[in-house]
Amino acid sequence: MRRWIAGVLFLALPSLAHAAPSVQEILLRAKPAVALVVSEVAAEVTATCPTGGKQQVSPAPFRETGTGWFVNPNGWLVTNGHVVSPAYQPKPEISRELLERGVRQACGDLSEQAFTTAMGRAKIKLDPSISVLLSNGMRLDATVSKYSPPVAGEGMSGRDLALLKLEAADMPSLMLGDSSNAKIGDKIHILGFPGVVLSHELLNASAKVEASVTNGGISGFKQDLANQPVIQVDAPAAWGNSGGPVVASDGKVVGVLTFVTLDTGNQSAIVQGFNFVSPSAAVREFLKGTDVKLDEVSRFNGEWHAGLADFFSGSYGRAEKHFEEANRLLPELTDVRRMIGEAKNPPPRPFPWMPLAAGALVLVLAAAAAFLVRRARRNRYRIRPAQVMRLIEASPDNPPLILDVRDGPTYTKSPVKIQDARHLPPEDLKPGARALGFDVNRTVVAYCS
Description:
Layout: H1 2-12, H2 23-30, E1 34-49, E2 53-57, E3 62-72, E4 76-79, H3 81-88, H4 92-107, H5 112-121, E5 123-133, E6 139-148, E7 161-166, E8 187-192, H6 195-198, H7 205-208, E9 212-223, E10 229-233, E11 245-248, E12 253-263, E13 266-279, H8 280-287, H9 299-312, H10 316-329, H11 334-344, H12 353-378, H13 385-394, E14 401-404, H14 408-413, E15 422-423, E16 444-447
Parallel strand pairs: 14-15, 14-16
Antiparallel strand pairs: 1-2, 1-3, 1-5, 3-4, 4-7, 5-6, 6-7, 8-9, 8-11, 9-10, 10-13, 11-12, 12-13
């Protein structure tokens, strides 16, 4: 009985404790740590035109975007190698494209022969740069601290990674999880900046730099062309999601989105549901030998996570204070501003039926348990008549001594008398009473009304 009561209490008590963070809370914790990475190659082109002479122009730069996330609060950001490669190692194709833009901008429409001549005489000076854009619109310059290129050809490598350094402190950051424990079917979330959102004509500028989330699960474990392990996921992704963190249900990063699957008939079309992730184990290995400390605490994270925990538990006043401090550390992040507004104008709080019901159940069970324990203690020396008979039959030469300890008037009036029992009034059992006068080594059975 006591084991049953303990089991019921064990099942009931968790409903009174803090529930595990919801998916919404986990994603809100992660979003501020995700940033838009911009690889840009600007150029200065000097062109000699057939009619206008020598001219110097700056054509529209070559630009590629991707996603990165802070792995350390002191400005260390992880992304894909192929996201930063246009600016880190500009290919001849980029230089050629910018040169063509510059010549056309400087000389206008030319015949094919004149254009070829102008291209042969033109000179170009490249100015590559990498920057990171936060959801508050802040743009920070970044330098490549470590770089691992993708495999040449169509495939990407499981080591398609880059580590960027920004001049920053107390940034939101994400913790690396353990991808070795990942299993098929585990729920995951991809955070990033898909190009279809960045270029959408119906969204304003602030909406475009707020990370999007797609959801799915792990669908396989594969190897890329370099035999590096990759994780296959079915969460939707697009150009621009590259380098984005893949977050598990505990809020930790289990991998980095590295490449998507293209339609063989249309190389610009993405086949959704077949995207691939560099596991977090590869990220840990990549970060070895760098100055990145994976266990460093972010002050922003402390305030932001505490505020979210308070908000989702209904403590809106405390949540607002934490949000305000997070906003002071890193002003005007989109999610922080939104949560400050919600904390000031919280949704109507539903009546807490479940906690109250659980509390009432616990109280009832506790009272029942106390009653049963008290009863068990009170009855721990009680013995049934059948057990008395067995004791007599088991030791006929030394039977138990049976004492009838009913008070005198009750004993006198009662028609029930136990054979071979010795009447001993209760007052004779009190401390200081006369000696009982029987062998204390015998089994004693006392009868009372």
